[in-house]
Write a sequence for this structure.
């Protein structure tokens, strides 16, 4: 059974832009089209007219990308190319970070999304909390501490020393506001500053240029210090605290993994999920949203209720493709 979009709250008058980083492959194009479907089915002009900006890396041919995605011409969708010099230095992380370097234009709120996420319900309760003039970033805490590369000089990220060590290296006063990782159900890990899973992060227009000015240099330094796959997530935390951007930690409803451990650790009901992050592939595979594979996903019996909700939405999506 599909989770219905909330209809009670009126349009908020805020212009939203959603930004997704991808590689120029059929798998990612299919994920973007599914994301767009979930977005446009929500009630309210602020969703149906929202801008979806897709940032494409891998030295893509942007004209070829547009030709392969002619369906997008019916929607407010912009295809953006990652500059070659950014991709050459940072690879996939450069594509993810380039979202922060693009001006807000007329958008009031910029939502960073992963391609393997989809809006099941509106995010209006979040939108009303975002100020217009005070720089702010909000996201859901990452599941666990970031992994380190083998050559990193950093203390273990599972130790209480890691984040204070990193803050000191960047000359940032230690924060009094710390939080549990979102899958630390046993509360055995040290608390951390606001450190977000980038599957869903909301940034207001006032904060965006502050991130843009810092993200390349900070990511370069974070990479040298941690060699972490989560360098982009770490960079967001460092920038926000370094330049004084207000942070807010969102509940799991805005970035719910299709992982029963995550759902249970956050006491989240399936009906309460607003944004589903279908990153676990024990029952489903993200590539199955491609037209030639989608029937396999729809015909399979699933046990995870988050995956069942996703499968229901995919049924509706498939009908829209006819």
């Amino acid at each position: 059974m599909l989770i219905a979009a909330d209809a009670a709250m009126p349009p908020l008058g805020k212009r939203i832009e959603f930004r997704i980083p991808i590689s120029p492959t059929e798998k990612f194009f299919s994920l973007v089209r599914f994301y767009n479907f979930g977005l446009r089915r929500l009630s309210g002009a602020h969703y149906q007219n929202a801008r979806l900006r897709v940032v494409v890396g891998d030295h893509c041919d942007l004209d070829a990308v547009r030709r392969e995605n002619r369906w997008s011409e019916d929607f407010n969708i912009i295809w953006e190319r990652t500059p070659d010099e950014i991709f050459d230095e940072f690879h996939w992380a450069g594509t993810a970070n380039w979202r922060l370097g693009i001006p807000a234009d007329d958008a009031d709120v910029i939502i960073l999304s992963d391609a393997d996420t989809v809006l099941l319900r509106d995010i209006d309760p979040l939108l009303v909390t975002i100020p217009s003039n005070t720089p702010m970033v909000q996201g859901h805490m990452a599941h666990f501490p970031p992994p380190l590369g083998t050559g990193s000089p950093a203390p273990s990220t599972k130790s209480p020393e890691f984040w204070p060590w990193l803050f000191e290296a960047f000359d940032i006063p230690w924060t009094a506001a710390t939080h549990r990782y979102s899958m630390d159900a046993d509360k055995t890990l040290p608390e951390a500053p606001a450190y977000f899973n980038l599957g869903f992060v909301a940034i207001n227009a006032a904060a965006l240029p502050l991130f843009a000015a810092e993200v390349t240099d900070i990511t370069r330094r974070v990479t040298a210090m941690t060699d972490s796959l989560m360098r982009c997530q770490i960079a967001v935390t460092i920038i926000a605290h370094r330049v004084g951007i207000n942070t807010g930690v969102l509940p799991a409803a805005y970035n719910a993994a299709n992982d029963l451990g995550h759902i249970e650790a956050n006491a989240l009901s399936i009906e309460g999920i607003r944004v589903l992050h279908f990153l676990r592939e024990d029952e489903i595979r993200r590539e199955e949203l491609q037209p030639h594979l989608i029937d396999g996903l729809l015909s399979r019996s699933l046990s995870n209720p988050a995956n069942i909700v996703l499968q229901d939405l995919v049924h509706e999506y498939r009908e829209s493709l006819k």
Observations:
- The longest helix spans residues 208-226.
- The chain has a mean pLDDT of 95.
- The domain at 16-282 is CATH 3.90.550.10 (Spore Coat Polysaccharide Biosynthesis Protein SpsA; Chain A).
